[in-house]
Design brief:
It contains seven helices and seven strands. By secondary structure, the protein is α+β, with helices and mostly antiparallel strands. Helix 2 runs antiparallel to helix 3 and helix 3 packs across helix 4 (about 90-105).
Length: about 190
């Protein structure tokens, strides 16, 4: 059985697991800072805002996660001194600049529009309904009428999954430095109740 709940219900104990899942899903984009997944997870653990993260428990274990916010609250709030402590002064300072630009850029949406971010499932729980359970939970939140998410064009299976759930693409933005990042486009998708 899969149970989905707000991460704040588990408290700070959830941050470690959220960070591990985050690094497993998105860590390849952060390999400049460290190629060691454990080091990355430890360095990022402090930054997740539990009030906006929703987690799926599969047989009592955190199996997946997603952040859902209306842009009044950022889903991550990093601390430059923590980043420097884990990555060193040079890479920690660069991480601070990059994270501000990438994770805390203001995206203004209406009060009843949600931004879904950092949607990820632990690899050992994939194809077990975890992602669908999280998405169904988010889409049932009464305070939102519309949902927007951002995905990369590098995995067409993910885009097809979101389309099956009712999301429709409304914009593609060409990425600068696509050869370096490996991303050609960011794809923006919308779901309206």
């Amino acid at each position: 059985m899969i149970e989905v709940l707000c991460a704040k219900e588990l408290g700070d104990a959830a941050k470690k697991r959220i960070s591990e899942i985050f690094v497993d899903a998105f860590g390849h984009h952060l390999s400049f800072f460290s190629k060691d997944k454990n080091k990355l997870a430890k360095a990022l653990e402090h930054m997740f805002v539990l009030d906006v993260f929703h987690i799926a428990l599969f047989e009592g274990e955190i199996a997946g996660m997603a952040a859902c916010t209306n842009s009044d609250v950022h889903s991550v709030n990093h601390d430059q001194s923590d980043l420097r402590r884990h990555f060193g002064i040079y890479k920690g300072t660069i991480a601070n600049v990059v994270f501000k630009r990438e994770f805390q850029k203001p995206i203004k949406v209406g009060k009843r529009t949600a931004l879904i971010e950092f949607f990820a499932t632990d690899p050992k729980y994939r194809r077990r309904g975890v992602a669908k359970a999280i998405m169904n939970h988010l889409l049932s939140l009464p305070q939102y009428d519309e949902y927007i998410l951002e995905v990369t064009n590098t995995d067409p299976r993910v885009i097809r999954l979101y389309e099956k759930l009712g999301f429709r693409e409304f914009e593609r933005i060409k990425q600068k430095y696509s050869r370096l990042s490996g991303l050609d486009y960011m794809v923006y998708m919308r779901y309206t109740k």
